[in-house]
Amino acid sequence: MDPPIPPRWPLATEVFGNENGPRTTDALPATYHYHETPGKRAVGDPAEDTPAFLRRELSLGGLAGLLKHLWFAGAERPAMPLHSHVAMGREIVVFDRMDMHLLWTNEGRLFVKPVPRFLLSLEFCQTNLQCPDGCTCRDPPANACRGVPRRVALGFLYTYACLISSETDFHIANEKRLLPPRELLRMHENDPGAVHPRFLRAELRLSRINTISRFTSLPLFNPYVRGRHNYGSLFRDNLAWMATTTVFVAVVLTAMQVGLATERLQRDATFQQASYGFTVFAILAPIGAFALVILYALFHLVKDLPSLLGAQRKRTAAGRTVSSAEPKTGV
Q1: Do 81 and 178 form a contact (C-beta atoms < 8 A)?
Q2: CB under 8 Å to 95, separation ≥6 — which residues?
Q3: DSSP letter string, 115-161
Q4: What's the pTM value of the predicted model, to 2 decimals?
Q5: Where, by residue number, does the polypeptide cross the bilayer (predicted)?
Q6: Is residue 75 part of a domain?
């Protein structure tokens, strides 16, 4: 059975004309950042290995493993126009990562990935996002298969066709530098089978994505995106809800104290037991909660310690190399 014919790319002509010249790699960025291993970031040249660059640039990261749980984070519907997000009070934040595109926080921030210039190059996409002859796009796909990056790219462009539906949206996108100079493509047709299923759900709530990741990914209890970048914010955020809980507990204890002063409740054995139990809880719960916060901080410190020590050793070794290479001058 012959493999299915890939859907038509949603560009009929070159958006930027012929200014890119004969080389399709001219549409690529100068460099890009990627992680060789967890915690080790590197800088690469997209033109040296374009397929590897596209696999990383069009990768959904850990979000790809959460697809069957995304119903918990967002409904299956098209993305809302940009002006609607602005009207709702959301702050549009540029985040150049595909796995963070259209994720929003409880604080009102909506992460949006800008449109890469190479996705608006018809020649580039036909050359680099087309599966080679004989590719059957089986599951799992072969290394040369470009079916998944192509579907991600089509889904990404589909979200922009929804985000920018009017001239007002176009001006907002230009103000936020979401588009390359010149004009934006128009996606005339929407084939749900051609786009990646992640982009059929549009905006996703980041807090729920973190909840899904904590219980479905390994290691357990790791959020998808860590919102705290230092231990000060960790203690500040946790002490805030602990202080709120303490106020509530104080109100309940005061009410119980007033109840125990009445003759009717003084003779009520059930109320006496409840008051005793809640008093013990009010004493031990804050201590236990604070201890859990300390243990959580120590856990992350121990987990991050090897990478921190490794980076420090590399800096020390580099400093010694530079010192030994410097010419020695006599007095």
Answers
A1: no
A2: 101, 111, 112, 113
A3: PPGGGG-HHHHHHHSSPPTT----SSPPTT--HHHHHHHHHHHHHHH
A4: 0.67
A5: 239-262, 274-299
A6: yes
Domain count, the chain: 2
3-state secondary structure of 239: helix
* pLDDT tens per residue across span 136-176: 665 555 556 778 899 999 999 999 999 999 999 999 999 99
- Per-residue HEC secondary structure of 69-82 comes to HHHHCCCCCCCCCH
Domain span at residue 93 reads 24-216
Same domain for 139 and 74?
yes
Distance from C-alpha of 277 to C-alpha of 298, rounded to nearest angstrom: 31
State whether 129 and 275 are in the same domain: no
Whether 31 and 149 share a structural domain: yes
Residue 43's H or E segment, with its range, is strand 40-44
Q: Are 263 and 209 found together in one domain?
A: no
Q: Rounded distance, CA 39 to CA 307, Å?
A: 7
Structure tokens at 106: 């409880």
